[in-house]
């Protein structure tokens, strides 16, 4: 059976990438809205209700409106906005978050695609908290850098217009109200919001997140090997995922710590670096903000919901 897919907001960065990934699928029929009817609520309503799965690539308020326009009990939704990421009744679309999450996504009618920033931090912190190596109340700091495509159409236009004169490293979120904080806290299982300091770089896509840990503050101090084993064991228990854990090595620098390394893939690679003598560590995740961080994750979730192989039309 061919599934009907409607990408509401297909002209945006995320929507275009999802459409590109699905374009050659014979198991799907892509429903498309005419350019002159993109703001026609009746036409959007018709397509939303005609779809087996609607993928929402819209601002938060528009995404909520689209969900409200669905009047049947068969249209399933993947929302790529931040409107429903911690909402009751919505499955969080990070399939590798734990060993049950892909099944939760597959069974759900409402899936909230994760934000790009939280996934790296969740992937490294949640296994440590579940293993009891870090307390849920640990004061967490998250740093990182992402390509400018993460800022949407206006930021893309600004960076491309500035060219070589664009800001090479622009910290933001300095009011401590970043929209990804609620999901990061909830799904990393933290009792307090982390101190989150993201930055934009002068490159189109790709990202790195880094979580430094002052382990000496703990009553029982885990070693670097303990941290690595807990994270590795967590993802070893998840079959068919796109998250891998790098070997635990000591290194001053590594060419693999390149935010653009996994561009145009759905791959995420995690690293643990530590000094047992200083009781300090840093947890690093490398992935594509438009791949695993957005469009790739949406396609992975769609595949799970349709019951096809999770890697269908995804590069790993």
From TrEMBL:
- Family membership, please give it: Belongs to the NAGSA dehydrogenase family. Type 2 subfamily.
| Pfam families, per database record | Semialdhyde_dh, Semialdhyde_dhC_1
Example GO molecular function: N-acetyl-gamma-glutamyl-phosphate reductase activity
Catalytic activity of the protein = N-acetyl-L-glutamate 5-semialdehyde + phosphate + NADP(+) = N-acetyl-L-glutamyl 5-phosphate + NADPH + H(+)
Which processes are annotated in GO (biological process)?
L-arginine biosynthetic process
Tell me the superkingdom of the source. Bacteria
Q: Tell me the organism.
A: Devosia nanyangense
One annotated Gene Ontology cellular component of this protein: cytoplasm
The gene is argC
- Entry protein name: N-acetyl-gamma-glutamyl-phosphate reductase
Q: Does the keyword Cytoplasm apply?
A: yes
Q: In which pathway does it act?
A: Amino-acid biosynthesis; L-arginine biosynthesis; N(2)-acetyl-L-ornithine from L-glutamate: step 3/4
Q: Which InterPro entries match?
A: AGPR, AGPR_dimerisation_dom, AGPR_type-2, NAD(P)-bd_dom_sf, Semialdehyde_DH_NAD-bd
List the taxonomic lineage. Bacteria, Pseudomonadati, Pseudomonadota, Alphaproteobacteria, Hyphomicrobiales
**Protein's cellular compartments:** Cytoplasm
UniProt entry keywords in alphabetical sequence: Amino-acid biosynthesis, Arginine biosynthesis, Cytoplasm, NADP, Oxidoreductase
Q: What is its EC number?
A: 1.2.1.38
Q: What does this protein do?
A: Catalyzes the NADPH-dependent reduction of N-acetyl-5-glutamyl phosphate to yield N-acetyl-L-glutamate 5-semialdehyde.
- Residues forming the Semialdehyde dehydrogenase NAD-binding domain are 4-105
